[in-house]
Amino acid sequence: MDHPSQTSSRFESLPSELRQLIYEHTLVKSSPIVVWAASLRRPTDDRYCSRRKYHWDHEAMSQSREGLLLSLFRVNFVIGTEAQQVFYSRNTFSFCGDHDWIPIISWLNTIGDYNRDFLRSLTVGIPQPTRTWQWSDGSRAPSESLHHDDNFWPRNGCLSIGENDFEKGEVENINPALETFIAMLARTWDKKQETPALVLTFIPDDNLVPGVVLLGPRTRSDPDDDQDYRDIARQRGIDRYLSMDMPNLVEKWARDYRIQRGSRELDIRWQVRTEDVRMEEKRARMRKIGWQIMSEGERVQDAWAMIGDPPQPAGPWAWMIQFVLKREKELIRLMRISPPAADPMPDDFDIGVQR
Fold first, then answer.
1. Tens digits of per-residue pLDDT, 158-181?
2. 4-12 and 77-90 helices cross at what angle (nearest 10)?
3. Which residues lie below 8 Å from residue 3, measured CB to CB, with a gap of 6+?
4. Buried b / exposed e across 247-264, counting CB within 10 Å, b at 16+?
């Protein structure tokens, strides 16, 4: 039986092209590798309960790694370095479900600066952000809707256009760790040569399209169509709404870090999925506020619509459609914050894209 060192020596003697083929066959998956898949569970419905636990989907994480020969990383320095370069550059890594950005930052620290440079594709789930209260001077305080166990963060200084130019009401509570995440992806270990761009895809919860007012699943009323509902929505809040605050901040941070020496471009995309009937008249709205529709998927039937005995006929609200969005024009500055979630964004709202 050959000694492991002899086996690795013979492997290193193979032509580099052949070694690359072996790495690609043993370390590359056609589907994303799930690094994090978890849902936040609280033991009771008590909003003051301070215990929060993550329930991990171990099956999804383990299945995404099936067939990968990760032991190649530990053969020796040369083979391990070559194998990791193929592994991190040729796969898409996915973070699903609930998170506070800390698990993703921890993973980026774990793989190290050198391997981070090889990353080419990440997908990150975006749960609906918690909300906090903003006063007319821009200061913020925890709102009644914020769970006792949820963190509260002050307003980011970029979300303004001038002194005391703020709207009073509930706004999204954006974790500052998001900027750390963007900075870690943009900064590169090798300062001497240009690092290829990384495709970063954000995937919000279903029926969350940044800057587009949508209601909860199978809600028939639309504030864009019903003036009475608009008034109610302003008072009670909209149940499914993602403002432009997070996309604006992400674009700004990616641009700011890109112009620094030793940084790379982040190709930022948003993959959204919503009920098809909602989007019939929303495509123009999406383009108007600066989104380019890069691709539009096929209509698929929502699994919830098939529940029943016998299953009910599929109506227009039973179909889902997926879009991939990208900022159509470069963001040159943040003009202002998006309006509070309880106040639908007017069609003429300025989001700060270059005209």
1. 887 555 567 788 888 999 999 999
2. 60
3. none
4. bbbbbbbbbebeeeeebb
